[in-house]
Amino acid sequence: MITACVQYRKTVVFITVGLLAISAFGMATQVQKQFFPSSDRPEVLISVYAPQGSAIATTDQSVRRLEAILMDMPEVKSLSAYIGAGAPRFFVSANPEQPDPAFAKLIAIGQDVEGRDRIISVLEARIAAGEFPEARVRVTRLLYGPPVVWPVSFRVLGPEADQLREIAHQIRTLMTGHANIVMPHLEWDERVPTLYLDMDRKTWVGWA
After folding, report:
1. Residue 137 pairs with which residues in a beta bridge?
2. pLDDT tens, per residue, the chain with 208 residues
3. How far apart, in whole angstroms, are the C-alpha atoms of residue 117 and residue 115?
4. For residues 42 and 149, what is the distance between their CA atoms, to the nearest angstrom?
5. Which distant-in-sequence residues (6+ apart) come within 8 Å of 9 by Cβ?
6. How many separate domains does the chain show?
7. Continuous segment of H or E residues that includes residue 124
8. β-strand partners of 142
9. Helices 113-128 and 56-71 sit at what angle, rounded to 10 degrees?
10. Do 131 and 159 fall within a single domain?
C-alpha cells in the first residue's frame, strides 16, 4: 500500500482533491444549514395574541376552542394552558411572556416526534383556514439556543407616535409581499383607553 501511494502519488492527490470538492459541493447544496437546530422534544407551543385591551375572558374563549381541538387528537399526550401570562420556564430556550390579559400560552405534549409534527400540521391548517379570526395564533416547536420570539423583526424609533405607526404599516406591507415571510404584524399598534391620575401637588401642600 505504501509503495502504491508513492508510485501513483499524482493519482492519489487528484482523487483526494476530487473527493474534497464533491464533499464541499454536497455540504453547500444538500446539507441543511441552521445555527441552532430544532429540538426533538415532543412539546408544541401555541401562543394566542388577542388585540391589545382585550379582556382575559375573551382570551379564555379562544383558548377553550383550541383545547377542544387538541383534546380530540390522539397524538396529544397532555395539555396545559396559561391565560394572561406565559408558561413557567421549563426549557432553557423557553422565555416566559410577561403578564397580559390579551395573551395566552398552550403547551401540548405529543406522544412522539411524529405526533408532535401531526399536531402542528393540523393546527396550522385550521388557523390558515381562518378558524380564529379574533386573535393571532402561532404554533411553534422548541429550539435549541437563546430564545427568539420572532426570527425577523424591525424596530422603528422616533418622537411622533402617529408617524411611527404609519412607517411601521409601510414596512409590514413590504414584508407581506415577500413569499418567505409568514404572519407579519405590529407589536405596538392597537390603541386602548388608559386612565391616568394627575394629582395637584399645590392643593395638597395647601391642606398641609
Report:
1. 48
2. 445 555 667 787 788 888 888 888 777 776 666 666 667 789 999 999 999 888 999 999 999 999 999 999 999 999 999 999 988 888 777 788 889 999 999 999 999 989 999 999 999 999 999 999 999 999 988 877 666 777 788 888 888 888 888 898 898 888 888 888 888 888 877 777 778 888 777 665 555 5
3. 5
4. 19
5. none
6. 2
7. helix 113-128
8. none
9. 130
10. no
111 and 166 co-located in one domain: no
For residues 47 and 137, state if they share a domain: yes
pTM over 0.90: no
- Residue 44 makes CB contacts below 8 A (sequence gap 6+) with 107, 108, 109, 110, 116, 119, 120, 123, 139, 140, 141
Q: Which uninterrupted H or E stretch holds 120?
A: helix 113-128
Domain region containing 60: 43-141
| For the chain, the helix, strand and coil percentages under 3-state DSSP, each to the nearest 5 | 40, 15, 45
C-alpha cell at 75: 397524538
Same domain? For 65 and 126 the reply is yes
Cell of 107: 403547551
- Report CA 185 to chain centroid distance, whole Å: 12
CA geometry: angle 183, 186, 191, nearest 5 deg? 135
Amino acid, single-letter form, for residue 140: T
The cell for 18 is 476530487
